[in-house]
């Protein structure tokens, strides 16, 4: 807006009033601009974080030194510097690649590849050669799936004497063998194969339909789908038994994820997962159970856990706080937030302190991964606990210095 000097009033009081009004307008504009700048900055941070998630390296490896915080947090104090340079992380020696032996329990067929009789003579003096040893190698042979038809024959019996006397005789025959789905062509082995391919190896029923068709068997996906429902009902008692065993464990893990369901809203279909046990099979009570819901509400976890009061390892989702379990945070998710924040800022500094401490914890876990449970406990109490305490102290120290909405 342009002001015409000739149009301004000569009255000083009126001029002062106009000046104050203009100052208020300018101040309001400045506030609006500052608010828009903050919104633009926040949107750019969210956009950069999304780009990092989609296109950055998935390993979350941390390059050199970096910083998460704003200008007010750029300078490291002496204690932070000490945390960055103290106790280098455990370095894993690079192992020479070596082929693992094939499992000993596999059937083995020996194939001897020998010289022709005419070649078993010395090229120098033509005298016969003698066997001094042998070299051997192993290769895997794949035998395609073998399908056979089980023809069940049940002889029928009747009484010839009663027939001669004109007496109606009862026809006797053995009862049919127990079957998971009576009067169907499905045997336990066939059902197990279909279930394993679909739920363990992710092979949909329509593709299994094609696989069966390739070997001349007409087995529609509709039929297999109905079999899956029948099997789910049959396995329900086993599921409940496993659930009872799971909830009897002192420590369990929980998570939930969006699930694509045909003819259902993706945003409301969730598979909740609960598990317990060790990383290696056979060393503990290893159970993994799935619980489908069309909701992500905390009541889903409350209903499944049914008053469970042990420790539950989760990712920080607020819904789990409605349960009676003692929640245990996931260090991988904590680290991921620092990695994301590090990608949003070019400046270097304090974020590396947290990542450095977390890296030391990872190094300890790598070093003790093959130890017994008791040995792991002692190592964690002696080596890991001081680092966790230091990380906690550092977070508390800086929590009030970082704006709540800082990416």
TrEMBL record:
Coiled-coil intervals, chain numbering: 19-46
Occurrences of domain Transposase IS66 central (ranges): 183-406
Transposase IS66 zinc-finger binding domain segment(s): 119-163
Coiled coil is among the record's keywords: yes
Pfam families named among the record's database cross-references: DDE_Tnp_IS66 (PF03050), zf-IS66 (PF13005)
Highest rank taxon of the organism: Bacteria
Swiss-Prot/TrEMBL keywords: Coiled coil
Protein name: Transposase IS66
Organism, as annotated: Pseudoalteromonas luteoviolacea NCIMB 1942
